Amino acid sequence: MEDLRITLDTKPGASLHASILRPAGDDHKGNPLSNTLIVFLNGLALPSAGWSGVIERLIALHKEHGQPVPTLFSYDRYGQGKSDPDPSDKESDLPYGHDARSVVADLHQLLTQVVQSELSHRPQNDGGEQEADLRLVLVCNSIGCPLARLFAAEQHSRRQKQQPSFHIAAYLFLDSMIANTDFVSLFPDPDSEDFGNETDLPSGVTLTDLRHARAQFRRFFHPTVPNQERFDRRGMRQLLPDADQPPLPSYAGAGGESLPPLLTVVGHDWDEFARQSEQPPFTVSSAITNSYMNTAWGAYNEGLTRLVPVTSQGSPQEVKIAKGCGHFVQKDDPGFVAAEINGILDALVSRGQ
Fold it and tell me: Which intervals hold domain AB hydrolase-1 (predicted)?
């Protein structure tokens, strides 16, 4: 991967760190992936370097089968990894700066510049000899998944305004953040007036466990908890109140037909996530995690599978479980993620789009 420093035209005075791998050779004729760009979208805790194992295994997998490797692109958001802080964030005593809409706008601008300057791709509205829209595959973890959904909606709006340059053909959601919760409310409050009896709690769960879990989730995951990016997450629940809405937009195929995107939803291994949650500094019991957190997350992931029509997948999709993986699937099993990406690419090639 080649490292880049990119300054957005919309945000001068700061730069983003990015990495790109271009297909080898100049002749793309006959390469069904020559018009494909895989974009990796990070969560909050792991920067773009967290995808290195996946990328290495994906390259090795394609070389092993004599297949071309598409263009790969990863980046650190403002304030993350090796990128500069967001220059639009004002000095304040509050820890909050830019929000999800700003992140999505930055991603669009970043890809627009990369497509034109690094890939020498001429979008269809750029005059002169035109090329087909670039095909994007978004590989996302954690908060990267809701960001991908918001980005897709923004791209759909741009396409309706005749501003195409790339379309999203496929998504891989790796243990998406639950975007419509404050996390604390996933657990009953033992100190509320309408709380029932302790005897009604699931086996192995105590009132002390519940209070501790609520306190830990408030401390680590509540939308008001600050992060080094100054990414303000407080409005995320309003932007994406439902797991299964709005649907991921279709795109125009080579023949002008409307095609739904491919979608793969991956969830963590419940037992492994519960085991990791018991470790410091989180220290939430497995009984609590399995009774409340895992069940809520499983239901949310099932909702995500309905973001595309059943017909686009051929049959009702099920959530894939990454065996032995906690929340950071790309870190715990990069080979699994590489294989899933490869499967998506094979499906796109089979589509002929």
Answer: 38-339
